[in-house]
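Annotated sample (chain length 170).
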Amino acid sequence: MSNMDDKFVKTDEIEITGNLVKNVMFKNPVPAIATIVAGAALFLLKDTATPVIGIILIVAALYYIFIVKDRHTVDVYDDSVVIYAENDQTMARKIMYDDIFEWSFFDSNVKNSCIILTLNDYSTITTTTFQLSKYFNALRTTIPEKELRQKQLNAAHKKIQSFKIKPKKK
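Output written by the structure step:
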């Protein structure tokens, strides 16, 4: 991964030229809400341990909602992406789609999911988010031709199409 610190600028210095397609935040509230519902259901059961487990789930979800800070991760525009610095939300980097060679994603249940942008100079930018599907769908809408998986499928498809078996002459 390249050193990108020198390419981040203050967010108010970034000139926005396109229309906003998707704003992607770090936290995803849906699992927390589902955890609260599951915790409440366990709490209401009259078994021995389930109310305790329900309370633990509710407390963990409330901690996630109210204590863990949410932050901007990426703004996807129709001509570029703006990636916010993880530790300083006043700093961001704008990347035009012409500067992106390809993009791919890494989805994990163990670690944070991320989108990996490979630039034309082959440096990479990795953006971590719990809202991978929003980021993925926004990129797939705006620059589907630069998705690594799509490029691989297209290459394989072209290779298969160009392979022709000539009939044997009798």
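Annotation: The chain has two domains: 5-26+70-161, 29-66.
Annotation: The first helix runs from residue 29 to 44.
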